[in-house]
User: Fold this.
Amino acid sequence: MNRQGRPTEPVQAIGAAPSTFTGNRALRIEEALIFEIGRTEVTGVDLDEPADFEPRLGGLERKTDRPARPLRAGAVRHYVRLSRMNYGIDTGVFPLGSCTMKHNPRLNEKMARLPGFGDIHPLQPQSTVPGALALIAELSRWLCELTGMPAVALSAQGRRAWRAVRHDGDQGGARRARREARSIVLVPESAHGTNPATAALLGYRVETIPARRRHGRSRGGEEAPFGPTSPPSC
Amino acid sequence: MRSKLAEKLAAVPGVEVLNEAFFNEFTIRVPRRRGGVVEKLAARGVLGGVPASRLDPDRPELRDLIIVASTEVNTDEDRVAYAAALKEALA
Assistant:
């Protein structure tokens, strides 16, 4: 059995931590879960006792002891240690995959987090989000112009969602039974491999759009779904 | 805290809270209003929830149901404002 790598069982994780006077584990990268460190009789945050209220959890209220928790400093250190294990745009490059981090400049992140966009709930009344709708309409127009396609769907952000739009449960037989006229999926050469793989698995014929030297697309505009790889989609 | 909103909404004439037990989401039945109750609430500055019919438009029995969420980010003032706006919207 391969015993290398991070222990996955909680007991192992705790056992892997060396016992030191301060609890500091220096360069040891194994980090126990937040509930595996600390004690049950302490709390990291002081909250006011809630006023009397009647729970409506249908008898699912916690009846056992509350889980262990670290003191405030311990909680901070726990999450800081976790954050230092993270791999992000500030620590290295992403040659493939994790496109969000690969492509998104910080400015884009900031724009996406403007309250008028960031605070929108996907199911709130459309009448309350005219700005977002205007942005979607403008982006759609640009994408249509760039790709030569008659329409775009921005509802499918991730690859998984893109599948849901046209493909999920839509095996080739079902597509033919529905007399679905469109049978080709155009996939840019630069797309993530799972895009054409998904389309092929579900009975579509995949046609690749080769990249030009200057990063353009050499064909498009056919009557077929076209699944470009957008920054947050792989 | 959460049950406070359910109680406030249940006190609005014509409104029925359907869930006996819930955590942070519950469903209410409201009388139908032209243009939709959720839209009327939005016009009063309250995002009152998701019409169940939006999740499943083919089921007419869902047309008068709204799924409401209330969490720790909602204040007592929010809850009072919601109940008042709902009362107005249904008046």
Notes: DSSP finds four helices and four strands in chain B.
